[in-house]
Design a protein that fits this description.
Elements: H1 2-25, E1 30-38, E2 46-54, E3 57-62, E4 72-75, E5 80-83, E6 85-90, H2 127-133, E7 136-141, E8 148-156, H3 162-165, E9 166-176, H4 189-208, H5 210-214, H6 225-235, E10 241-245, H7 248-261, E11 265-269, H8 277-283, E12 287-289, H9 307-314, E13 318-320, H10 331-340, H11 345-350, H12 354-359, E14 376-379, E15 390-395, E16 398-399, H13 405-413
Parallel strand pairs: 1-4, 1-5, 6-7, 9-10, 10-11, 11-12, 12-13
Antiparallel strand pairs: 1-2, 2-3, 5-14, 7-8, 8-9, 14-15, 15-16
Helix pairs in contact: 1-6, 4-6, 4-7
Length: 420
Amino acid sequence: MKQAISIATRATAVIAAMALSGLTAATAQTIAITGGTVFPVSGPRIENGTVLIREGVITAVGANVAVPAGATRVDATGKWVTPGLIHAGSRAGLGIASLFQQSEASVQGEVTPSFSPAEGIDPAAITIPLARTGGVTTGIAAPGGSYFHGTAVAIQHAGDRLEDVLISPAVAMVLDLSGSSKAAGGGSRAGTMARTRRIFRDALEYARRRADYQRGAMQELSAPAAELEALLPVLTEEMPIVISANRAIDIRNALRLTAEFKLRTILTGAVEAWQVAGEIVAAGVPVVLEPNTDIPSFDGLGARLDNATLLRAAGVSVIIAQGDPGGERQLRFGAGNAVRNGLTWDDALAAITRNPAQAFGLTGYGTLDPGSVANVVVWSGDPLDFASAAERVYIRGQETSLHTRETELLERYRTLPPHR
């Protein structure tokens, strides 16, 4: 267990270094965003509100905030001001999934908990500024695969180096218990569950008998030591585990593992979650889903557009993601479609700000509160409306560019040469 603690300690040190790097890079400028309708998410909207930012941190939010002399004023009159959006299923910066051999999100192998996609993230990728144009300032970049994928990382969508963009190198382990993982269990869901239990038990046994393992005095384990080691923060409740499960039977299997091994589980996919909403609430498990999923499949016959609405009505913490490759900027439209299908507007905004921050342990993100990281978006209108646009995007208190490869092409070909 000492080695598991040392892993967590190293991760904490890395996170602290990243945070320090980001803060020292931020200017000491004080910014006051004034006159807009402010949506803190942690509380009711504030008409004619002010968000005061100093050194990358929000220092005050309210209707009667005194603006210090020398502060840069941003007039948001008639605008809407929200926290930066958080995408819980992002691929921004991890290559282009639809192009052959261009994705950086996975490695070969079924059991790869030690894999982290962090060093595959390209801060210069064209998908990162595209995400910013949709008000998405933070992404949870999760590895892909067919069973035990690896660890998800949290990044901010601004910076020139990995050290600039990385918020946390390990925010969650990722496990697939959907129909896609049947091969890992010999073609059976029951086989996959049995294999998962053995891996978890072997990890705990390895932690207890590490010295025996090193001198070869243990039976053969179900995975290499490095992979079992990577699972220990999950089994000691230091790190959540994201479990992909769509059918009700798979969701119940995930909840059984949660109870048996005392896991901090986050469900994802969850197409038929509405059928077992009460059990999910009882387990205290948040759910990441795509609200536009309505086409039945063998891995989710009970798909329906009001899944998020039914889950929230039951008391589930709902997180909205948008899985289209390169579609991170469309996250807000997924939330808007959830509203169209019955979710309240406030719950939809929380599902792409506060809720993912809480589920993935991103303290200081997802709300506009004093002490929060100054990820702030000024919108032309309702951010869940197609007609609105992100006009200003601040990440750690610095305004970021909304210039993209698309705008470069537009400007280049706006005026075509005369026809000959």
